[in-house]
């Protein structure tokens, strides 16, 4: 059970950091709160890695950049970061309900 909580906290670190960043930007600039897009965050703080990834995919597999990465970069960083946590919680609930993995023999259904 302790590992489930530890992984949950680890998955929450990135969404909390993204949310804190957005609050900081809103407070610093005096503008209303808005979620920052993942692409804007990446471009603002580490443009060289973004250029390297873009050049790699543009040369080798432009469909990957255009179909998967570019749409993801247009999404708010908080929502992109919180998605793995939501998936994790869904899996843990599924395991608890059906008594799988860590919850073997403790399921809510079929026990």
Sheet of most strands: none
Number of domains: 1
Helical content class: over 70%
Give the C-alpha Rg. 19 Å
Task: Report the total helices.
Answer: 5
Along the chain, the helix and strand elements come as HHHHH
Query: Would you tell me the structural class of the helices and strands?
Result: mainly alpha
Broad shape: extended
Mean pLDDT: 93
How many DSSP E strands? 0
Separation, N- and C-terminal Cα atoms: 19 Å
Strand content: under 5%
The low-pLDDT segments are: none
Describe this structure in words.
The protein is an all-alpha fold. The protein has one domain (2-103). It is built from five helices and no strands. The protein has helices at 2-29, 38-45, 47-60, 62-73, 77-98.
What's a quick, concise take on this entry?
By secondary structure, the chain is mainly α. The protein is built from five helices and no strands. The chain has one domain (2-103).
Please specify the SSE layout and strand pairing.
Blueprint: H1 2-29, H2 38-45, H3 47-60, H4 62-73, H5 77-98
Helix pairs in contact: 1-5, 2-3, 3-4
Fill in the keyword field for this structure.
111 residues; mainly alpha; 5 helices; extended
């Amino acid at each position: 059970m302790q590992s489930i909580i530890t992984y949950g906290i680890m998955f929450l670190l990135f969404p909390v950091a993204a949310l804190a960043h957005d609050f900081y930007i809103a407070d610093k600039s005096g503008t209303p709160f808005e979620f920052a897009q993942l692409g804007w965050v990446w471009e603002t703080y580490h443009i060289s890695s973004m250029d390297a990834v873009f050049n790699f995919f543009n040369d080798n597999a432009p469909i990957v950049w255009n179909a998967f990465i570019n749409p993801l970069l247009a999404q708010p960083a908080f929502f992109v970061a919180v998605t793995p946590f939501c998936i994790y919680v869904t899996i843990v609930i599924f395991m608890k309900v059906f008594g799988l993995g860590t919850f073997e023999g403790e399921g809510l259904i079929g026990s």
